[in-house]
Design goal:
The structure holds 2 protein chains of 2 kinds. By secondary structure, chain A is mainly α. Chain A has a single domain, classed as Up-down Bundle (3 helical TM bundles of succinate and fumarate reductases). Chain A is 80% helix and 0% strand. Chain A has 8 helices and no strands. Chain B folds into 2 domains: 109 residues, Ubiquitin-like (UB roll) (Roll), CATH 3.10.20; 130 residues, Fumarate Reductase Iron-sulfur Protein, Chain B, domain 2, CATH 1.10.1060. Chain B has 9 helices and 7 strands, in the order E-E-H-E-E-E-E-E-H-H-H-H-H-H-H-H. In chain B, the strands form 2 sheets. A 5-stranded mixed sheet of chain B has the order 2-1-5-3-4. A two-stranded antiparallel ribbon of chain B has the order 6-7. Classes of the chains: A mainly alpha, B alpha+beta. Chains A and B meet through helix 1, helix 3 and helix 7 of A and helix 7, helix 8 and helix 9 of B.
Chain lengths: 216, 248
């Protein structure tokens, strides 16, 4: 089923929507760090130690991320191959937005950011729990977060990456609904939701990074 | 008007092509684009040169034959028109106009600006029809009640002339708008619903085999379509395809 162009398009959309859901959940937890270090520690400890999250949801999430970018590259290569001789003059901006034409670029930036993000948080976390088997400390998460945002370089990289995430979401969110066959009276609402989500979530993440940089 | 034309010249499907510059003078703003091309060809013939090959037929925007990529856009800078409906008043004296064939591996160049769009015919043959028993007892189509909204949507989809501007404009050379219009025009009507499952599966299969790219919802096809075929058709086809896959 995944071999046909529409099946791949739908798979891309569904994995994207799944990642959007995860992003919303991730943001909800992270924003608590601005208001209450205790609440943030409690939620992070739960997410980091609940067996359902750790051994079922986390592998699904990692699979979702890998599937989304691998399928993205597969589709990009196929698309490039379908026009071997390029136009001398191609006015792409006359009929399509920059973001919709450059999803691969914004996707690559977001993927690179994920590499840094995994290096910053996920790898140390895995090392803490499953390599060094250090004792549980439910109060360590907030200080680890704040520590990461001491560096202005890291805050800048995070902020820049979130701008690209915003661009990626701006096309990807509503596009996913079109891909799964939803283009009806709700489309206007979905487009409004897309604008709100693609602005609020990345701006919120940038705010969290800058907040901890300034107050850490 | 005096113009510079940059035209893709390619002797045949196997030959190397290149852009060639020409100067053309005394072009009337009231000429259609194809009339300007005719005038240019007459001048080339008078000079003993090979005229530029390009597709055209009805010259009134309904046959879907004309297929030029003008100044970076399918059918030129105007909206909701085919190349034959484009007029020279859209250009200014002294302009340079770039004219290329529709580009896609599934649309190989035959000569100069003429491309082979038989891939569309094969997609249509794969399922873009309603099987009718013509034994003499055929039911009058007008006797079947059809919801007005569905009839309108089916008619809108059926206005697709299969020119290929959607493929030419799409950065991925995707044929989804064309195929979805053909799928929609039948599946929205009771006569077409009977074969809807096989139709969508077979047409999508053929589309993939022809080597078109994947749709990434940029919407360029809808903007450049001379008949204003809506992206709603692509969503409908995706929906139908998913249902058909589960049924098959």
């Amino acid at each position: 089923m995944i071999k046909t162009s529409i099946a791949r398009k739908v798979a891309m959309a569904l994995s994207g929507l799944f990642l959007i859901l995860f992003l919303g959940q991730h943001f909800t937890i992270n924003i608590t760090s601005v208001f209450s270090d205790k609440l943030f520690n409690m939620l992070s400890h739960f997410m980091g130690n609940n067996p359902l999250v750790q051994f079922i949801l986390q592998p699904i999430l990692i699979f979702g991320v890998i599937f989304h970018f691998v399928m993205g590259f597969v589709l990009e290569l196929k698309n490039r191959k379908s026009r071997s001789v390029k136009y001398v003059t191609f006015k792409g901006k006359a009929n399509a937005s920059w973001v919709s034409r450059n999803m691969i670029l914004s996707g690559i930036v977001v993927l690179s950011f994920l590499g840094l993000h995994f290096y910053d948080f996920w790898v140390p976390e895995m090392n803490y729990k499953y390599v060094e088997f250090l004792p549980q400390d439910p109060n360590r998460y907030y200080s680890e977060l704040v520590h990461k945002f001491h560096s202005p370089v890291r805050v800048s990289i995070y902020s820049l990456s979130f701008i690209f995430l915003s661009l990626h979401l701006y096309h990807g969110f509503s596009s996913s609904f079109q891909s799964v066959g939803l283009n009806n009276k709700y489309t206007k609402g979905i487009k409004l939701l897309t604008v709100a989500f693609s602005l609020m979530i990345p701006i919120g993440f940038i705010f969290i990074a800058i907040f901890h940089h300034l107050n850490g | 008007m005096n113009l510079t034309l940059k035209i893709w010249r390619q002797a045949n499907a196997d030959a190397e092509g290149k852009m060639v510059n020409y100067s053309i003078s005394d072009v009337s703003p009231d000429m259609s684009f194809l009339e300007m091309m005719d005038m240019h060809n007459e001048q080339l013939i008078a000079k003993g040169e090979d005229p530029v090959a390009f597709d055209h037929d009805c010259r009134e925007g309904i046959c879907g034959m004309c297929s030029m990529f003008i100044n970076g856009e399918a059918h030129g800078p105007d909206r909701l028109v085919t190349t034959c409906q484009l007029h020279m008043r859209k250009f200014k004296d002294g302009d340079t106009i770039t004219i290329e064939p529709f580009r896609a591996n599934a649309f190989p160049v035959v000569k100069d600006l003429a491309v082979d769009r038989s891939a569309f015919d094969r997609i249509q043959q794969a399922g873009g029809f309603v099987s009718v028993n013509t034994s003499g007892n055929t039911q009058d189509a007008n006797a079947i009640p059809i919801d007005k909204h569905d009839a309108d949507k089916a008619f809108d989809a059926a206005t697709c002339i299969g020119c290929g501007a959607c493929v030419a404009s799409c950065k991925n050379a995707s044929a989804m708008l064309f195929v979805s219009a053909k799928v929609s025009q039948y599946s929205l009507l009771p006569q077409g619903k009977v074969e809807a499952t096989d139709r969508v599966l077979n047409m999508v299969k053929q589309m993939d085999e022809e080597g078109f790219g994947n749709c990434t919802n940029t919407g360029a096809c809808e903007v450049e379509c001379p008949k204003g075929i809506s992206l709603e058709n692509i969503a409908r086809m995706n929906n139908e395809y998913l249902s058909a896959t589960l049924k098959a």
